[in-house]
Amino acid sequence: MTLRQTGDQEQDRGHLALPGEPVSPDSQSAASQARLDPPGLPSGSPAAQAVVEQGRDRSGTGQMTLALRYAVRSDVGLLREGNEDSAYAGPHLLAVADGVGGNAAGEVASAATITTITPLDAEDPGPDLAGALADAVAAANLRLQELIISDPAVEGMGTTLTALLWREGHAALCHIGDSRAYLLRDGRFVQITHDHTLVQSLVDEGAITEDDAAGHPHRSLLLRALDGRTIAEPDLARLETYPGDRYLLCSDGLSGVVSEQTLHQVLASVRDLDEVTRRLAGLAIDGGGPDNITCIVADVIDARSSRVAPTWQPVFAGAAAASGAQADLSRRPGGVPGGQPGCEEDSAHHGR
After folding, report:
1. What is the pLDDT averaged over residues 146-160?
2. Within a domain: residue 307?
3. Residue 10: partners with Cβ closer than 8 Å, 6 or more residues away
4. Phi and psi at residue 131, in whole multiples of 5°?
5. What is the pTM (predicted TM-score) of this model?
6. What is d(CA 281, CA 283) in angstroms, rounded to the nearest whole number?
7. pLDDT tens-digit series, residues 303-319
8. For the segment 73-129, what is each residue's pLDDT rounded down to a tens digit?
9. What does the alpha-carbon distance between residue 283 and residue 297 come to, in Å, rounded to a whole number?
10. CA 82, CA 79: separation in Å to the nearest integer?
11. Number of folded domains in the chain?
């Protein structure tokens, strides 16, 4: 995965303060907030928009206690030497980050981003979930800047981020880069994020087809990411959630190898969440495993009537787990609901 250099981009995205310049988190937050779309999908397809915004009756949800049940898996794949993906899943926050930069410390960028936003899981964000996510993303971008200033050798690193912040049946989606989020609702499976890649922009313009994009030599060239050098511009959207919804968040090590049809089939036919993540990672490895593979699968359940309990144990995966993020989080005031954070270790190189 390659991050397009600032000078090559079509529009000026602004810059973060350099050493000696005043740092203004408000300017980053404002830039992020400016991309907040109406409830539903930012730049999504009409079909996906219809699924997210379909007029389901919420009159009964007020009598329910909605909660999440989730599973996480991260695998180095077959060709990479290390894992630059990071992930976190907790009772109120799901997040996947795919590090960019290779030798320029992509794993540092993804792990730092995940650890910066995870306090959202324990905090009360108030009614503005999208605003809370935007502020956390701005803080993560500033953290990357601090790391670059302290060690210039990591300049050039960056990361994608796809995150879902969830409270009492309402959610906000934050997305930058080419990791993805999908929603399975009432049998319909849709991608609810829009890739920030050169190839996707060409598809949007009608210059190439989706089939052309799959084999395009620059399919991994990112137009937007968190890089600590430019102002973060994530897509933000407010979502309503319902019992029975199933979400998939993943890095492109999964979505770039396994077809959407196959993802749909697995999510719709396999009930056990751990088995879903195991099977998805296995399919990506069977497809060649050219990149790190990370996925979170989460079900929205009614805790009062469900036969299975919600998941309360926070889990880190990938580079964030290897960095000791779970120990750092447990030392913070208030910690994370549900006790000590867990750690989903990378599965064996060829394991599922």
Report:
1. 95
2. yes
3. none
4. -65, -40
5. 0.82
6. 5
7. 999 999 999 999 999 99
8. 999 999 999 999 999 999 999 999 999 986 679 999 999 999 999 999 999 999 999
9. 15
10. 9
11. 1
Max CA distance (Å), the chain: 57
SS3 call for 295: strand
Helices (H), 91-223: 106-117, 129-150, 198-205, 210-214
Q: Which two tokens stand for residue 346?
A: 């990378």
287: domain CATH number is 3.60.40.10
The tokens describing 308, both together, are 């299975």
Residue 99 or 42, more confident: 99
Residue 347 DSSP one-character state: B
Token pair belonging to 216: 């395009």
Structure tokens at 230: 């430019």
β-bridge partners, 161? 176
Length of the chain: 352
Q: Between the CA of residue 267 and those of 39, 207, 273, 278, 279, what are the distances in Å? A: 25, 32, 9, 12, 10
Task: Give the domain extent around 111.
Answer: 2-6+37-53+65-344
Cβ pair 340, 106 in contact under 8 A: no
The residue ranges of DSSP E strands in the chain, in sequence order, are 2-3, 66-75, 85-89, 93-100, 158-159, 161-167, 170-176, 180-185, 188-191, 221-222, 235-240, 246-250, 293-302, 315-318, 342-344
The tokens describing 94, both together, are 């799901």
